[in-house]
Design brief:
The chain has two domains: 156 residues, Rossmann fold (3-Layer(aba) Sandwich), CATH 3.40.50; 140 residues, Rossmann fold, CATH 3.40.50. α7 packs across α10. With 310 residues, it is an alpha/beta fold. The strands form two sheets. The protein has a seven-stranded parallel sheet with strand order 3-2-1-4-5-6-7. Strands 9-8-10-11-12 form a five-stranded parallel sheet, with helices on both faces. It is built from eleven helices and twelve strands.
């Protein structure tokens, strides 16, 4: 099957392109948001092809996977067809909705012919998708392998664009954690925060796995792939019990609460007990590999493709 989709979320896309299909990724000279092309810091298979907007008409696409509202218009502009009408389409919603509950209407709610695929059950619950069919395909990731050492007696936090996203990602909580559990902050994007490290994915995995624990201070986003990656690395996690986190971090694999004080206590206990960290991290890895494994993720997508293409 030939699938057209944009390179929007690196870790999600890296898992998605491991499937058995041919993937076509728009590329523009500036490699901006609408044409990033192939990943530059992730290993993608040869089944992923870069294609310019002018070349798209040369190919037959069985399906277009939309991830942002403007991609609907880009398909119409670049291919001359309408998603959900002239070409089969699905919309992957990566994010939790923002705003008042009664105003959380999805951009695809009025399209009818485009199913919406949510990455968490929480997101499906909160988004109003109108008459559009909705599905949930939970995250799956390429297993980074067990890398945990815990040799650096500090906590790792991964937040992309921490200043812009601010309270949404719990950036304001970092100082409170740092006073009790010293924090090293990693991520992607520009940040003026002291000590912020922007690393390629593989180097990032090695760096955070050397830290004693992983702290996830996210208030309101979809389930962060960095949390799943930390668990599969074998790290014990301490996380705010918001959005999908309570379902992703069961008892014994980490510590979750909406009480930041309780998380500080848990984080300090982990910082002082490497054996506890190792035991908790092993359980976290076992659980995360089973629930968020690549094979399950790709199988879920193939089943959905079969249903859509019937």
């Amino acid at each position: 099957m030939n699938i057209l989709f944009w390179h929007v979320h690196g870790s999600w896309s890296t898992a998605f392109v491991q499937g058995k299909h041919e993937f076509y990724i728009p590329v523009l000279p500036d490699r901006g948001p609408d044409g990033r092309g192939r990943a530059q810091t992730w290993a993608w298979p040869e089944s992923v092809h870069e294609v310019s907007p002018d070349e798209l008409h040369r190919y037959h696409f069985d399906l277009v996977v939309l991830q942002r509202p403007n991609e609907y218009d880009l398909v119409h502009e670049w291919l001359g067809c309408r998603p959900g009408v002239d070409i089969r389409a699905v919309y992957v919603e990566h994010n939790a909705p923002q705003g008042r509950i009664n105003e959380m209407r999805h951009p695809m709610a009025g399209t009818g012919g485009i199913p919406v695929v949510h990455v968490t059950h929480f997101n499906q619950l909160f988004w109003d998708c109108g008459e559009a069919k909705t599905f949930v395909i939970e995250h799956g990731i390429v297993d980074p392998g067990y890398r945990y050492t815990g040799e650096v007696n500090r906590a790792a936090v991964v937040i992309n664009e921490p200043q812009r996203r601010a309270r949404v990602t719990g950036t304001d909580l970092i100082a409170r954690f740092d006073a009790v559990v010293p924090v090293d902050l990693f991520g992607m994007g520009v940040s003026e925060l002291s000590g912020y490290e922007n690393l390629p994915q593989d180097a990032l995995h090695d760096a955070i796995a050397r830290r004693r624990l992983y702290v996830h201070p996210i208030r309101w986003t979809s389930l962060g792939l960095s949390l799943i990656e930390a668990m599969q690395l074998g790290m014990p996690v301490v996380a705010l019990a918001t959005t999908e986190v309570p379902n992703a971090v069961p008892a014994g694999t980490g510590f979750i609460s909406t009480d930041v004080g309780a998380l500080l206590i848990a984080g300090r206990a982990l910082l002082n007990d490497l054996d506890l960290c190792i035991e908790t991290g092993v359980r976290a890895r076992t659980y995360a590999r089973e629930r968020f494994g690549l094979e399950r993720f790709l199988s879920d997508w193939d089943r959905l493709f079969e249903e859509i293409l019937q």
